[in-house]
Amino acid sequence: MKNVLITGGSRGIGKACVYEFCKRGYRVFFNYNNSQSEAEKISADTGAVMVQADISNSEDVINMADYIHTNYGRIDILVNNAGIAQQKLFTDITENDWDRMFDVNMKGMFLVTKAFVHDMIINQSGKIINISSMWGITGGSCEVHYSASKAAVIGFTKSLAKELGPSNICVNCVAPGVIETEMNSHLSDEDKESLCDETPLFRIGKPEEVAKTVAFLSSDDSGFITGQILSVDGGITI
Ligand code: NAP
Q1: In which residue ranges of the chain is pLDDT below 50?
Q2: 3-class DSSP state of 43
Q3: Does domain 3-232 have CATH number 3.40.605.10?
Q4: In DSSP terms, which residues pair with 30 in a beta bridge?
Q5: 31 CA from centroid of ligand 1 (Å)
Q6: Residue 70 pLDDT
Q7: Which of 47, 128, 178, 184 has a CA between 20 and 30 Å from the CA of residue 118?
Q8: Quick one: which of 222, 125, 126, 142 has its CA closest to 174?
């Protein structure tokens, strides 16, 4: 049975990934930061193992890795999903806002990947799936720090795919469009309607649809795919 770690599994897309991977018979580990009661419900419901860790904090990440390695062994598949967003005019973004965005969305991905990549290198096999965003491809107005961090995720994915290919580790990226999660709770009905108008499939996506794509990129069915950015966005970026 393969072990998969999903970061940010307590809500939204990460939560959908926990359910999808459990359904497919993987042994699932997920981390949460603040949403303890949500995490407990998911863990009780699915049997997935939960770990508290702020991924931007290297000590938390090392403790999480120690806990998993000591009690369960290696991770075969890593889903770097945890992330934060913020909407602000560029001129209002503070240095703190900027640092927090990159600490979670980019440094967190670096720390978690570093903590588990040895498992895959030693095993000469593995899958890493990073969650970017359509804004990392197109750039989003009033989300410069978020968009820049998600563009960095794409550069990280491609570079790591080149470096880890010889170790038979595939590194890919999923770039969701507008997905129905709490991250988009700030959107008004009007905002959502106009986003749907811009989307060829004319609707907002579901977290489960992203989770199924992540599961595909984690499976043997995607064995010759690496360094790719797969959009799950209803066509909004075409
Ligand atoms: P969400 O509903 O806000 O959930 C975010 C998840 O990330 C939560 O489980 C949260 O944990 C976790 N998290 C946040 N900061 C963390 C930290 N410092 N350490 C550990 N975990 C942390 O967001 P979502 O919509 O599911 O988004 C998931 C990913 O998809 C993000 O990377 C996001 O940028 C990306 N994405 C989302 C959309 C969208 O439309 N929803 C579109 C494109 C890309 P706690 O609640 O426990 O703190």
Answers
A1: none
A2: helix
A3: no
A4: 6, 50
A5: 11
A6: 98
A7: 47
A8: 222
| Cα–Cα distance for residue pair 197/153, rounded to 1 Å | 28
Quote the crossing angle between the two packed helices 12-23 and 207-218, to the nearest 10°.
50
65 phi and psi angles, rounded to 5 deg: -65, -40
Reported residue count of the chain is 238
pLDDT computed for residue 60 by the predictor: 98
- Mean pLDDT over all residues of the chain? 98
Which mutation among 5, 6, 11 tests ligand 1's pocket best, with the greatest number of atoms within 8 A of CB? 11
Ligand 1 atom at minimal distance to the Cα of residue 134:
43
What are the structure tokens assigned to 166, written together?
């010889």
Provide DSSP, 74-108: --SEEEE---------GGG--HHHHHHHHIIIIIH
Two tokens at 149? 């961090």
Interval 120-164: pLDDT, tens: 999 999 999 999 999 999 999 999 999 999 999 999 999 999 999
Residue in the structure block whose two tokens are 């965003």: 133
Tell me the pTM: 0.99
